[in-house]
Sequence to fold (190 residues):
Amino acid sequence: MPPSRVWVDPHHEWQDKLAERLLEKRIVLASGVLDDDAAGRMSAQLLALDAEGGDPIRLELQGLRAELSAALSVMGVLDTVRAPVHAYASGETSGAALGVLASCPRRCAYPNAAFTLTEPRAQFGGTVTAVTEREQQVRRMTDSLYYRLAEVTGRDADEIRDDARRSRGLTVAEALGYGLVQERVTKPAD
Fold:
């Protein structure tokens, strides 16, 4: 049998150092898909920074999508963190990830940001009773997401539900008008 070769990720150490530096600056980075594992790590980072003091935490959302349960978990943590959390969105933030954005008292968007209201996806199987119970639970979870978005945007939850059913996309300017974000990030003056 020929020997196998194990390749070490040359960026592994560099990525760990960068993550440490970001946390030292009170910056939490969330990108890609927020699943239950990522939500646990993100929640741990937010809680650790909160325990270290009351200075603001910067939450960078980069092209974030989220599973519904993961988004609701992070939203719950954001509701309990005492330090102010300032969210900065770039790329496309969509679906349940908008609940994470909406749970931050300060919501900013980089010029390249885009937002898409979409219905959360869910798949489950089992007995008719189990499927019915799971469907009811997902409806309650989805309602929680839409109620949070309604709370921060000043819109009716049914309007947000309709926009999500149509997969409504928003530019930064439209997201400002919609109430989803409060400001567009610009270069600081010299």
The two ends are 64 Å apart (CA to CA). The first strand starts at residue 27 and ends at 34. Helices lie at 12-24, 36-52, 68-80, 97-102, 128-153, 157-165, 172-178.
